[in-house]
Amino acid sequence: MLSVLVGNIKGGCGKTTVATHLASAFAAAGLKTAIGDCDIQRSSLNWLRRRAGTAAAIAGHDWAKDLGKPPKGLDRLVIDAPAAMHHKDVEDLIDIADVVVVPVLPGAFDEDATSHFLARLAGVKAVRKNKRVVAVVGNRIRPGTKVSEHLDVFFGSLGFPVVARLRDSQIYPAMAAAGSSVIEAHDRRAKSYADEWKPLLDLLAKAAG
Ligand SMILES: Nc1ncnc2c1ncn2[C@@H]1O[C@H](COP(=O)(O)OP(=O)(O)O)[C@@H](O)[C@H]1O
Ligand SMILES: [Mg+2]
Fold first, then answer.
1. Burial 79-94 (b: 16+ CB within 10 A, else e)
2. What distance in Å separates the CA atoms of residue 175 and residue 63, rounded to the nearest whole number?
3. 43 CA distance to ligand 1 centroid (A)?
């Protein structure tokens, strides 16, 4: 079983978008997949409820109050982390994760918060000892804008690899509302966005061995 934690202390950076997209990609590939939703807003669980009856099955676990045990027999567990993560929460979550995916938006406040979070991650023993894969994902990128260019400068200063860059598009709120993902929606427009997830999905496939 591969367990993927999606986290950052910045709200609105795309944690739920990334968590639901990864779960959707895994499930669509035939892997037995579950989401552990640790956020009191339960956005991932609400997304699950909106899924079409014909969509690939994903189990949902409400871990907003207490971190549950990863169910047995799973291929992939995706953990949607809360924004308000305390030191202890970060350590507990990293304990059960193989990979930590950190979405980050362009903008000074987002970069500041992400620096904070990555420094905290770097201080966790399992990460320090290279026992966890950490992957940063740039989200809501608007190519050619100053903030997006600045994000690239910021990325150059990180001690962690940046594995994917996702463009800003209204397709994401639309997929959130439909309980779907750009990966599962097979039209041409979705496909151009789905391609941007490939490096992250490849890294996760490699981590799964
Ligand atoms: N690449 C993107 N382009 C446009 N909107 C996005 C993108 N990623 C996320 N969003 C939207 O931004 C909002 C916040 O994203 P969400 O995944 O809920 O963040 P978090 O879980 O970190 O709070 C949602 O409305 C979501 O649909
Ligand atoms: Mg969320």
1. bbbbbebeeeebbebb
2. 23
3. 11
Could you read off the pLDDT of 68-102 as tens digits, one per residue? 888 899 999 999 998 887 766 888 899 899 999 99
The atom number, within ligand 1, closest to the CA of 20 reads 17
Question: In angstroms, what is the span from residue 13 Cα to ligand 2's centroid?
Answer: 8
Q: Which helix (H) or strand (E) holds 137?
A: strand 133-141
CA distances from 5 to 20, 31, 171 (A): 12, 17, 24
Q: Report the distance separating Cα 13 and Cα 39, nearest Å.
A: 14
Domains of the chain: 2-208 (3.40.50.300)
